[in-house]
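Researcher: Batch entry, complex prediction.
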Amino acid sequence: MTLVATAPVAKRRTLIRIPFTLVFGGTIIALSTVVAFFPSLFAPYDPVAMDYNALLQAPTIAHPFGTDSFGRDVLSRVIHAYTVDMQIAVFATLFPFVFGTFIGALVGYAGGWVNALFGRVVDAIITFPFLVLVIAIVAVLGPGLINMYVAVSVVGWVFYARLVATEVQVQKRLDYADSGRAMGYRPLRIIFLHLLPNAITPALVYWMTDMALAILLGSSLGYLGLGAQPPIAEWGVQIADGKNFMNTAWWISVFPGVAIVVTGLGFSLVGDGLAELLRTKK
Amino acid sequence: MLLIPYIFRRILQLIPTFAFIIIVVFILVRLLPGDPASAILGDRAIDANVDRINHELGLDQPVFVQFLVFVKSIATGNLGNSIVLKIPVVDLIAQRMPVTLMLTLMAAIIALILALPLAFLAALQRDKLADNAIRGVFQVGLSMPVFYLGIILLTVFGAGLGWFPVGGYGEGFLDHVHHLILPALTLALSLAAILMRNLRAAIIGVVGAEYVDFARAKGLRPRLIMIRHVLRNALISTVTLFGLSIGTLLGGAVITETVFAIPGAGRLMIDSIYGRDYPVVQGMTLALAVCVSLTFLLTDIVQAYLDPRVAR
Amino acid sequence: MKIVTIAAIAAALLLGVSSSAIAVERGGILTYARYADSLFLDPVLNDANVDIWILSNLYDTLLLPTDDGKGVQPGLATDWKVSEDGLTVTLTLRDGIKFSDGSPITGEDVKWSLERAAVPDTTWQFLVASIASIATEGNTVTITLAHPDPAFISALTVFNTAIMPKALFEAEAGASDADKAKAFAEHPVGSGPFMFSSWERGSTMKLLKNPYYWDKGEDGAALPYLDGVTFEVIPDDATRILRLQSGEVDGAELIPYARVDELEASDNLNMEMYPSTRVQYISMNVRQQVNGTDNPLANPKVRQALNYATNKEAIIQIVTHGVGTQLTSFMSTATPMHTGTDPLYPYDIEKAKALMAEAGFPDGFSTSLLVLAGNQDEIGIGTAVQQMWAAIGVKLELQQVDNATRTQQYRDGTMNMRVAAWTDDIADPNEITSYFAYSPTIDALHSGWKNDEADKLYEASQSEIDPAKRAEEYARIQEIFNTEGPTVPLYETPYPVALSKTTMGFNQIPLGNNIFRAAWLDK
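Model: Structure tokens for the complex:
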């Protein structure tokens, strides 16, 4: 492996073209954010209002997404769930991404015993059964979203840290890092201005996937009763609620599922687009 | 070869990790509200019965005495008895761990089979139809909760087409494999999506890197470039992610195991947490820790092979 | 002996009605899908329904419950007699009865088994707490009671009085009874219609026909008809149903209410709704103070207001999809001596508001409700009452917790309310009344509720041998509890079980026991 490049510089284009995936994904996320902030503008009904005379109704003009087993309007619940799920997507992953990337960059650059110690921490955290942790946190602090964020963050940052550390370790052996050192830059400058932009791509791509995973985790925890608490509308819990009605009232779970796919797609595209942008910037 | 001392060192390093996990899990299960007697008795938890059960279990002893008993049980290798099921924890581990290991292994293999070729195809056909189709399908797979996906697979391929049994674990090795294909696929899909996306991005990154241009300029054949340079470099972060994900898969197959009625470790673990079955939670945590650590060791070795500098 | 004959006729009628149409077939293994595995197959020391509900297939009792779960019929004993003063019970053991290993059942086995059931501080000891001494001579078992016990005959049909082989049990390794029980329960031997064969924990349990079972089928040969029963553990509701639909199992228990209609319409399944003693309710903490603050729920008017503000008919539709029926007392209609014909607290929001105002809470208050994490029924109930009670200003916070946390909270008296369910274990009102209304047992569902009259009536009823008088006592207890008790009664539901069209003669009695002794497969 001696085929090592000199310091990456922009070479093909001087003007940075914004990738289409970023535009498209960004639009989805921007729209989702608007809905998340002002759900009442879009939802036709109160998301928690029950209509005992309209239980499990198939989609109609009045209820385009049908009603659930409580007679609540599924469309309104899907819309109001944007508030919660966009929050989950961001809050459950932001800390792990930022903290994990920071630690990962330092560890990867330092190497040696720091890296070895870090390895043990990673082992201990990943090896520790996640559900024991979630249940313990929920049992001590009570169920709900905040505690879910805490539980996810305690474990989640390790993924980013390890991804970034591995990449930084590779990058720092490349010539441009050596030249940075030769020029007398301080390590922090080398790490965050030179190495990280090149090492961050996997973490960034994973982050965007992780957002969809976080929403899904809400669903798994909903299945176990540890996620968002009733009557809050949340896609994952909505899908878990619709499980008994897959044959008879598919609309309860399918529409929130579509919302997860679309939002997840938005985040994924943004991730791919950002990765591309970082590459062209080089 | 640096690899052998490296492996040796890594194994030694596992010991403090295990010690840490044992202590944390011991404390954590005791922090949970309620005790085994309340979990078992529920409505019928009359004080006299609760006291009798706690006394039988030695839970009326001071915590450090309980810890010593636990450490002793590890040292003697029997890990104590299950409070709820009344049988030795080692027996439970011997029954349940292999099931989950096999499920995870099959899921990992399926995920790799799906992710690797498709990531290459997607990366090389970047932004073309094939790429978009692959990414779209994986996005849907990634967005489906396992209990939902599991039921759909069971309905279509189990009850509908009759290719696979509807849940259960079967008897005999081949029957086990047959029973585990659908659950493994269920578990594999989201892992495959993660790996595919990561690898695709990595390949695109590496293909664009200068040293590949350099290799091309040197006149190396494209296939050689692909294997020697692109694959090696692109795989580094994918292997990292793979190792981490296997760790969470091993402990997190609970819902898949529940949906497919597989008597695995994940289900036992969650039942034991809910049942406050301290010895089982402790013993299973330890067993899982051993398995996950070995997976990590394996991925580290693969990484050291892909890039020997990592081992240093 | 009047009761005996009535019970025998009732049993004969029920058996006759259920299987006269087609001739029974013998042989075959019936596979039954359960939602959870058993934990501990010891009749005395077990604590869970997953054990209780199948134990009678392995372990026989001196007397058996009738198919409707309310009466008593002969079992290992052919007849029984209670003395005039109610202090002596005499039973006659059937001739030639054997355990499934072929060894004879002796008077000593009976004496030892009943004495073991009566050891204090076990969960079920209260059922036979009245036993003073047991003597056996030949085929005659004489039980002397410390006080007259009107529920004692029923208790002899309950799982914890099952007759076990003393010699085999005592030969097990272990110093204490508990240790021996652990070893014995790994390969139990009893005299039920089936015998234990093998058990893969968390997956399958196999039972085989007991060749020494005493009872005869309608074809004159020995029961059971089946060669065996296999239990499969399939925790996920959807998978359990799918497995039944694909023909891989013959029956599946605990069908979610949401799917009852769908399966009823299915051509190749029988959707059975077995009458049960299961009641669903919300129980409250009614102590004057909870966690150091005044507790609105201590006021009976507030509790009545919550009751009137609860639209039970709507909850029955939402949660049970019409399967449940409104409660007319705190105990189910399938419980002996149940009284009441009209639903309790018909929905009346105006009355609820008025009561809240009278109680000094015209603007309501905030409180919380524990629901079992992941339990769709309880979450449904919680979500519905949260909405309903908002109409009288009660702000309800739902807290999903696991079973142990919940138990801890109500034992400590720190919870406000919880959703709960109850199923009787004995065909007598004494068990449910003891837990619900008699404060010394568990503070009336751990609520802190106490009514001196109810306590006295319950104590009197425990040794009242005149059935009419005893019924009066229970009627009064129900009246008291239903008007000022610490619960919001919601509904009672049958046991929803789906069976393949070829599965015949299976029964689940109101106490929950799964009875396979007369089950057969129409091949």
